[in-house]
Design a protein that fits this description.
216 residues; alpha/beta; elongated
Length: 216
């Protein structure tokens, strides 16, 4: 079975380099190449029949971290491996938080890249050894990469705060709707807005960020 892959990198030379590395393997099919996250999302709207994306981080228009978060929200079936020259803690942390399934450095050789793709598609989390060590360190010694400026940008409406407070009590949507005299669909929309503003993907993370920023 062919493995359908997209390459996202604003450097055309590096795009070609990755494609050449994968050209040794007959079951790899490069379906598309994009220069940034925005272009990738436009292509996915037309055809999301992909298995995996090799994603650069630093790109104009929309970087790899934000693109990863959007792809995971819209097309959760697609696996994403960050393929980058960056190995600093903040890039790793933000990529994993956005939903990346793996993290590799661009100097990886063709066979290792291919093996990592297969590993990721099998449910693993492919990482360059040095990245894996940094990830373990981040787990053992969590760091706060949010700047004060980023924290100040987080604002919720009074209604969204009410909804989030109800969620933090473990209440379900229908109960929250009844308590706030709103429809269940309206509650769901408020929750979507909350997730978007807080840049999270689940209730627990939303509550954690909200409490950390003293929103609830």
């Amino acid at each position: 079975m062919m493995i359908k892959i997209a390459i996202v990198d604003d450097n055309l030379f590096l795009q070609k380099t990755v494609q050449e590395k994968l050209s040794f393997f007959e079951d790899i099919d490069i379906k598309s190449k994009s220069l940034n996250g925005k272009e990738l999302l436009q292509k996915l709207e037309k055809n999301s029949n992909l298995d995996l994306i090799l994603m650069d981080i630093e790109m104009p228009e929309m970087d790899g971290v934000n693109a990863t978060a959007e792809v995971k929200k819209r097309y959760p079936h697609i696996k994403i491996i960050m393929l980058t020259v960056f190995d600093n803690d903040e890039k790793i942390f933000k990529s994993i938080k956005a939903g990346a399934d793996g993290y590799l450095l661009k100097d990886i050789n063709p066979q290792e890249l291919y093996n990592s793709i297969k590993e990721t598609l099998s449910g693993g989390a492919a990482m360059t050894p040095s990245i894996a060590l940094k990830t373990l360190k981040l787990l053992r010694e969590p760091q706060d990469f949010e700047t004060e400026e980023e924290k100040e940008k987080i604002t919720l409406t009074a209604r969204e705060i009410q909804v989030l407070e109800q969620l933090s009590k473990g209440l379900k949507y229908d109960i929250i709707a009844e308590n706030l005299i709103l429809s269940k669909g309206t509650i769901r929309k408020h929750v979507e807005n909350i997730y978007s503003k807080l840049q999270v993907h689940n209730k627990l993370e939303a509550i954690r960020i909200a409490r950390k920023n003293k929103l609830i």
